[in-house]
Structure formats: structure tokens, C-alpha cells
Design brief:
The chain is α+β, with helices and mostly antiparallel strands. It has 4 helices and 16 strands. It has a 6-stranded antiparallel β-barrel. Strands 1-6-7 form a 3-stranded mixed sheet, with no helix packed on it.
Length: 207
């Protein structure tokens, strides 16, 4: 193994280890395209602002219970001008508001999720947001081949945190953020699924 290959392998291994330690540890090494808030009011995340969050646990209409809590993390920095308003990896918390399980009569499974809290730099802010889209993420498993093939470290890191594969087949989102399966199935959102949220109320972040 040449010196350059050895160095690249060591750096890649370190990057993967950092990501496995969690979103907070990884965010300082990830170069993801930031998003801008659609507001000129200082520190405001306005009504209608959309942001992507990554689920940290499985949500399944077959097993979920009303009032179950769950966590997600923001995927990219949310900016206001040249300032980071909400850093990537910030925690977003939610609750299962309603569950409808698939039945033998082919009634489709449904989950209604309420997002009610965002934590920025250790400070908690009330949140009102609904899911408007779902995106399947490749996650770490989908990047193993790239690592073995000697992909650039930036591609590895960016792919693990930001890599997505498009809308999840068989999932529909209706009014109020109700997530429904098609063809009589239960809704299953694996850990790592990216949900696009839309705010129903403005949030002012003290930065």
C-alpha cells in the first residue's frame, strides 16, 4: 500500500468513526449545502419555512402508540444571510398524534406526527410543524461500496449524512401531515428516513 493510499484510508476511517459517534460529533466535518430562511426578520424561522430532518428511530403504524415520542435531527445548516440560525444536527422532537393500523379488510395504515420542539445549541423552542414529504436515505450501509472503492472523504461524509434516494414508494402525505401507506400496508419509516417539515408557526431563535 502506497503512502497516499494509506493516508486516504486512515482519513476515511476517521470520518466514518466520527459519523457513527452521532450527528453532533459529525456536523463539524460535513460540508452540506445550507438553506436560507425566507424571512428578513432577525432570528425568525417563518411560517411556511421547510426544513429536512432525519429520523433517529423507526416509526411503524403496526407498532406505534399514540403519544409515543421520537427524535430527528436537521440535515443541513439553516442560514439567515451569512449566519447559521439552526446548525445541522440540531434535535427536533415529535410525538405520534394518531395511529391507524392496516387491517384484514385492506384498510391502509396511517401515522399522524406532531413536531413540537426544536433544540438549538442546548436551548429548546416550541415548534409547530407538519411533514409534507418523505425521502429514503442510503445512510451508512449505502456508502460501504464507495468507501471500499476509495471514494473521496468529502463524498463519503456527505453521502452518509446527506445522501438520499428519492421519495419513498407507497407513502402518501395528506392534509395535517398524516402519512398513509398504499394498498392496505402499514406505514414504515426506518431510522434514517428524511422528512421534510413545514412550519405552521414562526419560531424565533435566540442566537
Amino acid at each position: 500500500m502506497t503512502l497516499s493510499i494509506a493516508i486516504r484510508s486512515a482519513v476515511a476511517a476517521a470520518a466514518v468513526a466520527t459519523l457513527l459517534a452521532g450527528p453532533a460529533a459529525a456536523q463539524s466535518t460535513v460540508s452540506s449545502a445550507p438553506e436560507q430562511v425566507a424571512s428578513s426578520r432577525h432570528n425568525e424561522i417563518p411560517v411556511g419555512q421547510e426544513l429536512d430532518v432525519r429520523l433517529q428511530t423507526l416509526l411503524d403504524s403496526e407498532t406505534a402508540q399514540v403519544e409515543d415520542r421520537f427524535d430527528a435531527t436537521t440535515v443541513v445548516d439553516l442560514m439567515q444571510g451569512d449566519r447559521v440560525l439552526v446548525p445541522a444536527g440540531s434535535q427536533v422532537r415529535g410525538m405520534v398524534r394518531a395511529v391507524d393500523r392496516a387491517s384484514r379488510t385492506d384498510r391502509t395504515g396511517e401515522l399522524t406526527l406532531a413536531f413540537d420542539e426544536i433544540v438549538v445549541d442546548g436551548r429548546s423552542y416550541p415548534l409547530r410543524a407538519n411533514a409534507v414529504d418523505t425521502v429514503k436515505s442510503e445512510g451508512l450501509k449505502g456508502e460501504v461500496g464507495k468507501i471500499a472503492a476509495g471514494a473521496g472523504v468529502g463524498a463519503i461524509v456527505g453521502g452518509i449524512l446527506g445522501g438520499t434516494k428519492g421519495a419513498i414508494a407507497g407513502i402518501l402525505i395528506g392534509a395535517g401531515g398524516t402519512i398513509a401507506a398504499t394498498e392496505g400496508n402499514d406505514v414504515e419509516l426506518p431510522a434514517g428516513t428524511v422528512l421534510r417539515l413545514r412550519l405552521d408557526e414562526a419560531v424565533f431563535v435566540d442566537r
